[in-house]
Amino acid sequence: MLHSHFPNALTALLEQRREKGFLRSLKINVPSIDFASNDYLGFSSTGILSDFNKFSLSKKTGSTGSRLISGNSFLYEETEKQIALFHNTEAALIYNSGYDANLGLLSCVPQKGDLILSDELIHASLIDGIRLSYAVNYKFKHNDIPALTELIARHKNTYKEIYVVVESVYSMDGDCAPLKEIVDLCRESSAHLIVDEAHAIGVFGKNGRGLCEELDIESDCFARIYTYGKAMGCHGAAIVGSEELRNYLINFSRSFIYTTAMPEHGLAAVKAGYSLLEHTPEIEKLKINIHYFNTLINSQPSFINSMSSIHCKLIQGNKAVQLLEEKCSEHNLFVKAIKSPTVKEGQERVRICLHSFNTKQEIELLVELLEN
Ligand SMILES: Cc1ncc(COP(=O)(O)O)c(C=O)c1O
Q: Domain residues of the chain, as ranges?
């Protein structure tokens, strides 16, 4: 097979990564005890959502176009109403993924002359959205309220609008944002709060409504993002907020406008996921497992303090984390080494995702392997 010439500069970049032990490659995971996936409630792997087709009206395999052309449907509008109701807000808009939602929101909402203040550990999809925006942006130290307070005080008279961007649960650390304090700051300075709840849906709040619901700050948020590829066991995402925000996104959010809409079977799976959240025992089982894991690790300083499904053991160096991943794998446990540059050099870690379906014995074995 003939390929056109691959640029030398790109080959050199790959080589550099290989030499530093940073090279990424795709692997197919053999079935093992899952401490790595985002399927926190087992909605995907246990097949519990497999009757999702009953929520679909059509047999079409594709949506046939973007929402604004031929891709919209009653099911879309109905699902968005259900999402808005579940998350105690006026409106919701579905995107094909959380990446698309964050890119589409941050790239079009903050305008030239506005300011974005974001936690230094926000997800790449939020960072990429911010990079596409014409607003000025500054990062603040992770979860550092005094740093955010200082930034707001310094800039509040210079910019028209201020947007504060955080995650309720941080994807690589598993810790939560101090949302109550952030809300107070935003209220005092009339800043708009954007919260990515990707890892909080299905885990926190009444029937897994998320951390904003648990802390009773839903109405203090300008926008919240819920993604469906994690605890919900399917795919896609929604931005929830006011009807005006939804209307604005339909008009200006390019990752919403210029893409083929999610097909009906995707929507049906989202609907099935929400219906299941209303009565599933899995959320309670997950909470018990998180509590059990925390009891076993007993606040050891090498673990990041976390009440979410995501837990991390910090070990410096890509080689060291890789070795621990392999050791767990030899015992049929699937955990993931998170290497630099995904995290900062020196902040390498083994990332553990706890699930409702992990047994006590599996968690005990995992902790034993992590500790020795
Ligand atoms: C915090 C956060 N936001 C957004 C995303 C992107 O969501 P999706 O996987 O649906 O594109 C992720 C996924 O890794 C995430 O961790």
A: 29-45+281-371, 61-277
What is the distance of C-alpha 31 from the center of its chain? 24
261 and 66 in contact (C-beta within 8 Å)?
yes
* Domain 29-45+281-371 coded CATH 1.10.260.40: no
Determine the distance separating the centroid of ligand 1 and the alpha carbon of 110, expressed in angstroms: 20
- Give the up-direction half-sphere exposure of residue 146: CA atoms within 13 A in the CB hemisphere: 0
pTM of the model: 0.96
Residue with tokens 């009339």: 190
Asked if residue 302 lies in contact with residue 315, where contact means CB atoms within 8 angstroms, the answer is yes
pLDDT of residue 57: 64
pLDDT tens for each residue of 322-346: 999 999 999 999 999 998 888 888 9
How big is the chain by its Cα radius of gyration, in Å?
Answer: 21
| Ligand 1 site, CB within 6 A | 97-99, 102, 123, 125, 167, 171, 196, 198-199, 227, 229, 237
pLDDT tens column, 290-307: 999 999 998 889 999 999
Residue 274 CA to residue 308 CA, distance in Å, equals 20
State yes or no: pLDDT of 316 exceeds 70.
yes
Phi (first) and psi of residue 366, to 5 degrees: -60, -50
Cis peptide preceding 146, ω within 30 of 0: no
Question: How many whole angstroms separate alpha carbon 93 and alpha carbon 265?
Answer: 17
Q: What pLDDT was estimated at residue 3?
A: 81
The answer to whether the CB of 307 falls within 8 A of the CB of 290 is yes
CATH, domain range 61-277:
3.40.640.10
